[in-house]
Amino acid sequence: MNQSIIDKDLDYIWHPCTQMKDHETLPLVPIKSGKGIYLYDFEGNKYIDAISSWWVNIFGHSNPKINDRVKEQLDTLEHVILAGFTHTPAVELAERLVNITPEGLNKVFFADNGSSAVEVSLKMSYHYHLNNGENRSLFLSLSNSYHGETLGALSVGDVKLYKETYKPLLISCIQTPVPKDKRIDSAKIALVELEEILEDRGSEISAFIVEPLIQGAGGMHMYHPYYLTGARELTKKYGIHLIADEIMTGFGRTGTMFGCEQADITPDMMCLSKGLTGGYLPLSVVMTTNNIYKAFYCDYNEHKAFLHSHSYTGNPLACSAGLATLDIFEQENILEDNKKKSDYILSKLDKFRELENVKEVRQTGMITAIELKGYKPEERIGLKIYTYSLSQGVLLRPLGSVIYFMPPYIITYEEIDKMMKVAYNGIKRV
Ligand SMILES: *Cc1c(COP(=O)(O)O)cnc(C)c1O
Which residue CA neighbors atom 7 of ligand 1 most closely? Predict the structure, then answer.
């Protein structure tokens, strides 16, 4: 069974983020089913999904509450156009998102994946200024940032591996240095650098887009909330939008429901996706303020409307998965439980720090990263750790030489032990 799926797959599928030639030696892993934090293959093996399948399955696989809600919705309304029409799951989800996100984010614009939410936020920001008589075609982002891989999102990102090739195709964006570590002093230094850029080019810039607290694809780089608080003040001062890309950090990952809460700020726009549907279905939203909404609100012939759309915008099945996800947050003590679990993980990290190939160990909420040192990119150390841990029943997918845990919140303490033991042995072996 396994081999025939693999052969057929390689005949037909071009996989994401993959050099397909790798699969001449690296076997694909066909998955038959998922339950809780486990993925099951066709040969009776199970794997702990320690990365929540690319950071989305926050409550694991085949969650009974989400399953039920989506099944019920399936027999009611699977899809309807969201222009001119509406439906209960979208309305209810929008209302609940407004209630749980920072004060002042009152309008919800639906899209269908993270990158498209970022595209929406960039276009919305540019268009807002245009509607107010200003042409601001430059964007600002943090060094080492990641915001997705469509052209606009790639333009505001700064991970060379993904961006370099497409440079001639991109829109204008400049970077300001991300705080170099989690210390408050590093945040203060980076804020001085931010202000210098804003003083210099502030009037050209439409928006400053940031990943709050943690830069995910940039190697789980973490910084102090103070930076966000300062960035909010500065962007206000210079009339620039602050876009919080909480696609990865949203829904409890950082220890609070949203990363922005730790800095006590309301951005002008907040992009959400990934955990939004519990990892079930593609969906994203851009939350924004009444002020921005109003800049587009006028008679049709004034031509100020935001004419952006995607076919699957606000899909009812995806919205119902989102509602079930919010139900779980409301009904169970997820954030408190996560706090205990991340403290537990923290208490077991000293052992890693003692390894001579470990450069740094860092943690924010339910993300723990172990950065290795002394390896050249050609050694593909991450791949070695991936292969080893898979053979031990744990799915880890290091970012270069950064190994990280981003498990579903339902992981138990014993399962944390197993996940960490496998990672430890993997790091020790290489
Ligand atoms: C994953 C991610 C995106 C892109 O989302 P996709 O759904 O993969 O397009 C954007 N920003 C951040 C911070 C992400 O982690």
Answer: 114
How far apart CA 284 and CA 319 sit, in angstroms, is 10
Q: What pTM, to 2 d.p., does this model score?
A: 0.98
Q: What is the DSSP letter of 286?
A: E
Closest ligand 1 atom to residue 274 Cα is: 7
Domains (range + CATH), the chain: 2-62+333-429 (3.90.1150.10), 67-331 (3.40.640.10)
CA distance 400 to 218: 10
Could you report the per-residue pLDDT of 361-409, keeping only the tens digit for each? 999 999 999 999 999 999 999 999 999 999 999 999 999 999 999 999 9
**2 Cα: distance to centroid of ligand 1 (angstroms):** 31
- Give the C-alpha separation, 38 to 393, whole Å: 9
Ligand 1, pocket residues at CB < 6 Å: 113-115, 118, 146-148, 211, 216-217, 245, 247-248, 273
Dist. CA 141 → ligand 1 center (Å): 15
pLDDT attached to residue 7: 96
Atom of ligand 1 nearest to the CA of 149: 9
**Closest to 73 in 3D by CA, of 85, 65, 62:** 65
